[in-house]
Amino acid sequence: MDIRPWKHYSATFRRVMMVAWMLFMAISGGRRLCDCKCAFEAIFNFGDSNSDTGGFYAAFPAESLPYGMTYFRKPVGRATDGRLMIDFLAQAIGLPFLSPYLQSIGSDYKHGANFATLASTVLLPKTSLFVTGVSPFSLAIQLNQMKQFKSKVDESHTKGIFGKLPPPGIFGKSLYTFYIGQNDFTRNLASLGIEGVKQYLPQVVAQIAGTIKDLYVLGGRTFLVLNLAPVGCYPAFLVELPHNRSDLDAFGCMVSYNNAVVDYNNMLKAALTQTRQAIPDASVIYVDTHAVLLELFQHPIPHGLKYGTRACCGYGANAYNFDPKVYCGNTKVINGSTLTATACGDPYNYVSWDGIHATEAANKLTANAILNGSYFDPPFPLHQICDLQPLV
């Protein structure tokens, strides 16, 4: 479904539809949201802010508007204006939005859990969140949380107490998704440069491959691993990372950094091929989100968008609408002037929400592209396994 018609309805109509949808979500409880058939009864997600549905802000409450403004009309722990790709994936197979594992109030885990948190890395951080902003919930921690989750499910089953937990047999009937690695790639780029970062990227892909094997032991059999986005097109990195004008391509993206991402993605793809050989009865699928997002950044207009390398929410007297001193939603006094990074009124026209994360519109377009199966390697018949629902 094209996103463009939605914005042409009146604001009142859109609010009514949003309220109706949220009420439907609330009364549906832990049940599937449709009668569609799907082999997957749950999703377990591992990742960073690109797929965090509220874990980080459950641990460190701080999020405020304009985050969440488009769909939820309030902050809900997502680093965008609305829904994420993982939200659209859940919707497509008829499942509720994933509850964050760290969220103790209001969560329902009958159809899976989300272990992703904003600022997470694959490799164990060597510093504190309060020093460098890196989340303490690295992939190894997320895996340990998953192991604890399964242990609690098994324990509850033996006691005959289920509550909002799934049955023990759910783990072999679940989809395991990964969208992580971007922070490992970008957090040291400015200080170490591309060649410096490349030194530890083999450890990153090895850790992801090892985590898949550990989840296989827990019962997992289907894994979708999303590759890295073209960070050389992100407004924040265009402002913060050193580069020359000669490094910019015809679309305003940094060639050297995007080439380095391609090198990483190829390394990840090769590691997943080896993992597939080690667990041949599992489906280990490489998902090329990079290709979709690169297309959106380079050619936003044919896809119903207007702005590629400009952030919707930000501040800055530059083409990118991004200033690292004043992030989206923040107000600061700098040199005697009060500066506020505000959101645009039309996020549906942007690829980038805040300079670092995609808008709901871009997430929806990317999810649609993924769901049609064209970006799976090897080919994976998701549309045959599940009666996929159109994204709304």
Q: Can you put this structure into words, describing what you see?
A:
- This protein has helices at 11-28, 55-59, 85-92, 129-132, 139-159, 182-186, 189-198, 201-217, 235-240, 255-278, 289-298, 360-371, 382-385; strands at 42-47, 112-114, 174-179, 222-226, 283-287, 307-311, 331-334, 337-340, 350-352, 376-377.
- The chain has 392 residues and is α/β, with parallel strands linked by helices.
- Helix 8 (201-217) packs parallel to helix 10 and helix 11 (289-298) crosses helix 12.
- The strands form 3 sheets. It has a 6-stranded mixed beta sheet, with helices on one face. A two-stranded parallel ribbon has the order 6-9. The protein has a two-stranded antiparallel sheet with strand order 7-8.
- The N and C termini lie close together (7 Å).
- The radius of gyration is 20 Å and the shape is globular.
- The protein contains 13 helices and 10 strands.
Percent helix: 25-40%
| Backbone CA Rg | 20 Å
What percent strand?
A: 5-15%
Please report the total strand number as a whole number.
Answer: 10
Mean pLDDT: 92
Order of adjacent strands in the largest pleated sheet: 2-1-3-4-5-10
SSE class: alpha/beta
Uncertain residue segments? 1-30
* Gross morphology: globular
Count of helical stretches: 13
Distance between the termini: 7 Å
| Main sheet makeup | 6 strands, mixed
H-E order: HEHHEHHEHHHEHHEHEEEEHEH
Helix-strand blueprint:
Elements: H1 11-28, E1 42-47, H2 55-59, H3 85-92, E2 112-114, H4 129-132, H5 139-159, E3 174-179, H6 182-186, H7 189-198, H8 201-217, E4 222-226, H9 235-240, H10 255-278, E5 283-287, H11 289-298, E6 307-311, E7 331-334, E8 337-340, E9 350-352, H12 360-371, E10 376-377, H13 382-385
Helix pairs in contact: 3-12, 8-10, 11-12
